[in-house]
Specification:
Alpha-Beta Plaits; alpha/beta; about 425 residues; 5-stranded mixed sheet; elongated; Maf protein
Length: about 425
């Protein structure tokens, strides 16, 4: 089954509100084999709503509309849709009484404007809204099927899960659209494509999408219109092939957080972690401490932004800073070793670089980042140039620092005794 989505709200077009509803709709409908074929956003304007909903019904015969069901003057969705279906709006006293009682329990009185929320297109099925005041509506007629849901995310999600998905699922024949995601980092999209390209054809009929971000490249595989057990089998096989092709750049699946993976691997290897940061200014430590329970592994860190802090807090000699510079592999190595020594950690990672927008040179342009990891007394370092603005560079450097530390921990070099 194909379905189109129309999101109503001038605030969506102006950018003041992020359309999180459409993503939720796509995810939930896929679980019952319903594919979102097209998504359209329109303003709170009757003509725009009429054009978008009418076109969607002509193409797909099923449209899900969010927004415009509230009590204010710009909430005109159901009036417009009723016009397309050539049916009048009727006042439902039972809806009104339920609203009155609900507000009375809260010690509040309904405004007269709320009466419009009890107006329903003739012939529509009311989808009870236990999370708010605007009921959802299921209107079927000559033009097709129009499903109307409130735009408030919490209300929309509740109605979608409990009222809409079960109804649509009963019409999809038990087939599903399922996806799985493999998370990679430390490798550009183009290089990852070179690795995976030779096997992409073997994944069919499973489809593959590359989803790059500051954290890396997610690989999403999708199986369409398939029985659940067969979809799971095909997706598992595809994930195995991709994991093998991407190698050490894979750090998890679905919503896996790289920092959490680092902590778990360190925990299993009986390692403790310290960090030394310059250009990232605490972002690496922040990622690690954002994970609940990290205190049994992460001991702490040193933000040594100024050269004097690198010397005084981490023991980086002044002559190394003068000769090699703050942004150098030599400095990064000494920073990592200094953090491990000062905090008594058996593993540490250091980051120092030029995040910009100024400070670069022909030898060390903006984006030059030096890393070092020390595990069990053995230290390794590397240098790279990261693209983007200051925010991008710092975020990418943080992710790469965690990935480098993960690689050392996974390698099991000089494991601490159990």
């Amino acid at each position: 089954m194909d379905l189109e989505v129309v999101t109503v709200g001038t605030e969506l077009l102006l950018g003041f509100t992020v359309d999180s509803n459409s993503a939720e709709i796509g995810r939930q409908l896929a679980t019952v084999g319903v594919r979102v074929a097209r998504r359209t956003s329109v303003a709170d304007d009757a003509e725009a709503i009429r054009d978008a909903v009418g076109a969607a019904l002509r193409r797909s015969r099923v449209v899900l509309i969010t927004g415009g069901l509230g009590p204010t003057r710009d909430d005109i969705t159901k009036h417009t849709v009723a016009g397309l279906f050539e049916v009048p709006l009727e006042f439902r006293d039972e809806i009104w009484q339920e609203l009155v009682e609900r507000w009375a329990r809260l010690g509040r009185r309904l405004a007269e404007a709320n009466r419009t929320q009890a107006m329903v297109p003739r012939g529509a099925t009311v989808l009870p809204n236990r999370w708010g005041t605007a009921p959802g509506l299921w209107l079927k007629g000559g033009p097709g099927l129009a499903i109307m849901l409130p735009g408030v995310p919490r209300e929309m999600r509740g109605l979608l899960e409990h009222e809409v998905v079960p109804r649509l699922g009963s019409q999809s024949g038990g087939r599903v659209i399922r996806s799985r995601t493999l998370r990679t980092t430390g490798i550009p999209e183009s290089s990852l494509s070179d690795r995976i390209g030779p096997i992409e054809g073997e994944l069919a009929p499973v489809t593959l999408a590359y989803l790059p971000s500051l954290e890396g490249v997610d690989l999403r595989v999708t199986c369409w219109d398939t029985e659940p057990a067969e979809a799971d089998r095909r997706l598992a096989a595809a994930m195995g092939r991709l994991r093998q092709a991407a190698g050490s750049h894979v750090y998890g699946e679905e919503e896996a957080d790289l920092a959490a993976v680092v902590l778990e691997v360190a925990r299993s290897a009986a390692r403790t972690i310290a960090v030394a940061e310059s250009c990232t200014g605490g972002l690496v430590g922040g990622r690690l401490t954002a994970v609940p329970g990290s205190s049994d592994v992460f001991l702490g860190g040193v933000i040594a932004y100024h050269n004097e802090a690198k010397r005084a807090l981490l023991g980086v000699p002044a002559d190394v800073l003068d000769r090699e510079g703050a942004v150098s592999e030599a400095t990064a190595r000494l920073m990592a070793e200094g953090a491990a020594r000062r905090l008594g950690a058996s593993a540490a990672v250091a980051v120092t670089g030029i995040a910009g927008p100024s400070g670069g040179s022909p030898e060390k342009p903006v984006g030059t980042i030096c890393f070092a990891t020390t595990v069990g007394g053995a230290t390794q370092s590397s240098r790279t140039i990261l693209p983007g603005e200051r925010y991008d560079i710092r975020a990418r450097a943080t992710q790469l620092a965690l990935h480098l530390l993960l690689g050392r921990l996974r390698a099991g070099e000089d494991r601490a005794p159990r």
